[in-house]
Design a protein that fits this description.
This protein is mainly alpha-helical. The longest helix is centred in the middle third of the chain and has 29 residues. The C terminus is likely disordered.
Length: 196
């Protein structure tokens, strides 16, 4: 399960770079043309960090398991499906961020996909920690399991806000999503313990 998941996550994170294009010669100053692509760079960095953090947290979550059952495998597939569609959302956001029309919807789709991924991750984590604790490799006290789940679920609220404000400001949506990626990349987000 872990090897398959790592493969899907690796493909998703690699596909993100396909949206970054080399400007054709003669289309203007290279510096100007590269600078015009800043939405692509911002969306790429945000999504790369987010998927990278999910990979770290997924590894921590799965490494707690002694074995997996059918329900865990299905929930894991749903999580991987939500990760696999992120390159599309990233490309949509980067393409429409500076357009006169469609940027609100593009931002809502992007933040909504990140929210969907966070929900899928939290659902799988909750299932493992509270519905199937007997499948854990080592026993975890209920208090510790609650801390792990609460830390994972904290990210849902900013993604809900980012999705809700998308019709008003695509820029604010990207800022909220980028802030979440940066926050979860910091050691403080792990609470001084294993990532979850």
């Amino acid at each position: 399960m872990e090897s398959f998941s790592d493969g899907v996550i690796a493909v998703a994170i690699t596909l993100l770079v396909l949206n970054i294009h080399v400007p054709p010669p003669g289309s203007g100053s290279l510096a100007h043309e590269l600078g015009k692509q800043w939405p692509t760079y911002a969306a790429y960095a945000t999504s790369f960090l987010t998927i990278g953090i999910i990979w770290i947290n997924h590894h921590a979550m799965i490494s707690r398991l002694g074995r997996a059952d059918h329900a865990i495998l299905i929930l894991n597939l749903l999580l991987l499906m939500s990760i696999g569609v992120l390159p599309f959302g990233t490309s949509l956001m980067a393409t429409y961020l500076r357009q006169g029309q469609g940027q609100g919807l593009a931002a809502a789709v992007y933040a909504g996909l990140l929210l969907l991924m966070a929900v899928a991750f939290s659902t799988l984590n909750q299932h493992i920690l509270f519905r199937k604790p007997h499948l854990l490799e080592a026993e975890l006290p209920q208090k510790r399991r609650r801390q792990i789940l609460q830390r994972a679920q904290t990210g849902l609220i900013p993604y809900i806000v980012a999705t809700a404000v998308a019709p008003l400001s695509a820029d604010l949506t990207l800022i909220i999503c980028a802030s979440m990626a940066i926050f979860y990349a910091l050691p403080i987000a792990s609470g001084g313990a294993d990532p979850a």
